[in-house]
Specification:
Oligomer: single chain
CATH architecture: 3-Layer(aba) Sandwich
Number of strands: 5
Number of domains: 1
Order of helices and strands: EHEHEHEHEHH
Radius of gyration: 17 Å
CATH superfamily: HUPs
Mean pLDDT: 91
Largest sheet: 5 strands, parallel
Shape: globular
Low-confidence stretches: none
CATH topology: Rossmann fold
Length: 227
């Protein structure tokens, strides 16, 4: 009789990092349960990208959870706040969404306990990132400790496999895993036709990552920096 695969809940935003995370968990042999959110984000293209990635790997289930937009107001990703373009400034940027990863991981933990899964995957990064406090290694370690005192079952493991990788290294890892980066979405401020802006922090990090590998990003852009 074939042994059942261990289950894993993977936070899947539709961005390149979460796609690499999903493919990595698949390569490790986990039965995948993908979790995405509608939380008032200005652009829903990421949910379409998340669905494409989930479908590509044939996940066991892809749950899209609805959250009240009012709980995440005040961010450039959820509110009428201009998205910064060009080189990022210092401090926590206006694209930070209040306590987003804490909320997302809490709901992922609830689903994991319901499923009998002990492994949770999240694509946070502490190298090429925008200064978000809930992407720091200290946050991931603290949440794992919390998970193991706040639940009936366990032990729970919070996997953040991209935490210490540069964007170029993440892309390289994704290519090795067979990620179709043309079916991911990163841009904070896409145009009317869904084309990436090429100038926000997410676009710039993504483009710089591909350039460092001597590659061209397959995602369509309205305009790429430098022409």
């Amino acid at each position: 009789m074939k042994e059942a695969r261990a289950k894993a809940v993977v936070l899947l935003s539709g961005g390149m990092d979460s796609a690499v995370c999903l493919h990595g968990a698949h390569a490790e042999g986990f039965a995948l349960y993908a979790l995405s959110f509608r939380y008032g984000q200005r652009h829903r293209l990421e949910l379409q990208a998340a669905a494409a990635q989930a479908q590509a790997l044939g996940v066991q289930s892809h749950l899209v959870f609805d959250l009240a937009a009012e709980a995440f107001a005040g961010s450039a990703l959820t509110d009428a706040v201009p998205v910064p373009k060009g080189v990022a400034g210092s401090g926590i940027p206006v694209t930070y969404v209040p306590a987003r990863n804490t909320v997302f991981l809490s709901l992922a933990l609830a689903w994991a306990e319901t499923l009998g899964a002990q492994d949770l995957f999240i694509g946070v990064n502490a190298v090429d990132y925008s200064g978000y406090p809930d992407c720091r290694p200290e946050f991931i370690a603290a949440f794992e400790r919390l998970a193991n005192v706040a639940t009936r079952d366990g032990p729970y493991r919070i996997h953040a496999p991209l935490q210490y990788l540069s964007k170029a290294a993440i892309i390289q890892r994704g290519l090795e895993l067979g990620v179709d980066f043309g079916r991911t979405h990163s841009c904070y401020d896409p145009g009317g036709e869904g084309l990436a802006c090429g100038e926000c922090a997410a676009c710039r990090l993504r483009l710089e990552g591909f350039a460092a590998l001597g590659l061209v990003d397959p995602l369509p852009y309205g305009e790429r920096p430098g022409g």
